[in-house]
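Q: Okay, next protein. This is Creatinase_N domain-containing protein from Caenorhabditis elegans. I've checked the sequence twice, so it should be correct. Can you predict the 3D structure?
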Amino acid sequence: MAQREYEIRKLEGINAIIISTRNMILSCEKKNECKLFSD
């Protein structure tokens, strides 16, 4: 049971990172200041 809770918590943490990263990229693209993926 504790193992399952740990897995869920880990997935929630990963999801939070993905969401914040996606939001950062989206806001960056809106400003057209994002040189992250350019050579």
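A: Here is a summary of the prediction. Residues 9 and 15 are 10 Å apart (CA to CA). The mean pLDDT is 85.
Q: Noted. On to the next one.
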